[in-house]
Specification:
This protein is of the alpha/beta class. It contains nine helices and six strands; from the N terminus they run ααβββαβββαααααα. β3, α3 (about 85-100) and β4 form a beta-alpha-beta unit.
Length: about 280
């Protein structure tokens, strides 16, 4: 019988970081690009009605933890189990809404505090960049030290994280190891995780013995929904690939006919979109 549940699931993630302020504070300080004098000291969770609503397609693949700290900064923490390009836009939209919601009529804009969106992605992202940590903010195109403070978006690709190949802060490594190594197949948690007070507390929260039969049914239903969603995404991607292959074959067939009729290679390239090398290889 399994000893631990996977902390990435909706049920477990919310129990850990949505019900224990000390743990989400530790997570935020470890994973966000905060300076020493900017660390989160205390938080309060958003009222349920303020948490951004999710679409039917998203509700089984995203979990939310939303809070503000004593400096009135806003934090949105999410776990995305599957990747789509629209997720980045949704993150930006929700972070922007949180920023705008701070503004009161007649209040000076100087009172607006930053909004941080910390997003864990349990799937490869279509980002042409090395590493698993992706930090976005508004910067001057030529002077990267010129920053418009307000929105800070962080995406963490969990599949790319390998603790032995990176040299991050200790707590960053421990939390990422917790999220990537602990699951139903974990017989014993690593000593490094058990020895840390915050991560050890999180490990106790995901022990199977702590969950009721009803909670376990909800947990299993979540993973069934994830499997269904992944299947839908895979089938959609396969259809796109097949459609692209058909279009490419049409271009190849047209190029072959034009080449046989003596069309100039440059004209064939312009009409079909194929490169000169591709046409010469036909």
């Amino acid at each position: 019988m399994a000893k631990y549940l996977n902390p990435k699931a909706d049920l477990t993630f919310k129990k850990i970081f949505g019900e224990h302020p000390n743990l989400v504070i530790s997570l935020l300080n470890a994973l966000l690009p905060l300076k020493d004098d900017e660390y989160v000291e205390s938080i309060e969770y958003w009222p349920a009605e303020k948490i951004p609503r999710r679409t039917e397609a998203e509700k089984n693949s995203i979990v939310d933890v939303c809070c503000r700290d004593n400096k009135k900064r806003e934090f949105i923490v999410e776990m995305q189990m599957t990747w789509t390009e629209s997720f980045k836009k949704r993150v930006l939209l929700n972070a922007s809404k949180a920023y705008v919601a701070q503004s009161e009529v007649g209040e000076p804009f100087q009172l607006l505090q930053p909004v941080y969106a910390l997003n864990f992605v349990n799937a490869p992202m279509n980002i042409d960049a090395d590493g698993y940590y992706h930090h976005y903010q508004l910067v001057h195109q030529e002077k990267s030290d010129e920053v418009i403070d307000g929105l800070q978006l962080v995406f963490i690709e969990l599949p790319k994280f390998q603790p032995h190949t990176f040299s991050e802060k200790k707590m960053q490594v421990l939390w990422l190891r917790f999220l990537t190594e602990i699951n139903e197949n974990t017989l014993e948690a690593p000593d490094e995780l058990l020895e840390n007070p915050e991560v050890s507390e999180a490990l106790k929260i995901v022990e199977v013995a702590a969950y009721t039969p009803a909670e376990m049914r909800a947990y299993d239903k979540f993973w069934d929904a994830i499997s269904t969603r992944k299947t839908e995404i895979y089938e959609y991607e396969q259809k796109l690939l097949q459609a692209e292959a058909k279009l490419r074959q049409k271009d190849i067939d047209a190029a072959c006919k034009m080449k046989a009729k003596g069309y100039a290679v440059e004209d064939i390239t312009e009409i079909t979109g194929l490169t000169i090398e591709q046409i010469n290889a036909l």
